[in-house]
Amino acid sequence: VQLQASGGGLVQTGGSLRLSCATSGRTFSTYAMGWFRQAPGKERDFVAAIDWSGSRTYYADSVKGRFTISRDNAKNTMYLQMNSLKPEDTAVYYCAQRNSVLAAMSPQDFVYWGQGTQVTVSN
Predict the structure, then answer these.
(1) 3-state secondary structure at position 30
(2) How far is Cα 26 from Cα 13, in angstroms, rounded to an integer?
(3) β-strand 67-72 against 77-82: which pairing, if any?
(4) Helix runs in 3-108, H state only
(5) Is residue 104 a contact partner of residue 49, using CB atoms and an 8 Å limit?
(6) pLDDT (tens digit, 0 to 9) for every residue of the chain, 123 residues total?
(7) Spatial separation of the C-alpha atoms in residues 15 and 86, rounded to whole Å
(8) Residue 49 CA, distance from chain mean position
(9) Can you name the residues that pair with 21 across neighbouring β-strands?
(10) Is residue 113 within a helix (H) or strand (E), and if so which, with residue range?
(11) CB atoms within 10 A of CB 16
(12) DSSP class of residue 52?
């Protein structure tokens, strides 16, 4: 199984970015997915999660109302639309996949991880 995150970059406060996570190696539509982020010197934190169908989504309080997680099962790809970005959103963002149809919010519940994409929000 391979996960490839992309779409990161440098953006000003208030700007937007759209992250993508392309997957391969097994049937994408069978598994829940999630986004996590890790800032320098900090632990990897939950950002958003989505179940196998896309009907159930979950968000960290810090991103609710600003970020939207979605998936396109026909394209084997998950997305994270990030709006109204803040400097505290600066981190490496990782996509991950579970061995379950149900969404989860703990890194320990995910078995496959992408390589990460850097998001930097400047003042």
Answers:
(1) helix
(2) 37
(3) antiparallel
(4) none
(5) yes
(6) 999 999 999 999 999 999 999 999 999 999 999 999 999 999 999 999 999 999 999 999 999 999 999 999 999 999 999 999 999 999 999 999 999 999 999 999 999 999 999 999 998
(7) 8
(8) 7
(9) 5, 78
(10) strand 112-113
(11) 11
(12) S
**Token code pair at residue 120:** 């930097």
Look-up of token digits 């991880």:
113
For residue 26, the 8-state DSSP code is S
Q: Give the C-alpha distances (Å, rounded to integers) separating 62 from 6, 23, 82, 104.
A: 22, 27, 12, 17
Q: Which two tokens stand for residue 40?
A: 């320098």
The pair of structure tokens assigned to 108 is 């320990």
Q: How many residues appear in the chain?
A: 123
Sole residue written with tokens 């600003």 = 66
Looking up tokens 């998936």, which residue turns up? 71
The amino acid at residue 12 is Q
Retrieve residue 104's tokens: 């989860």
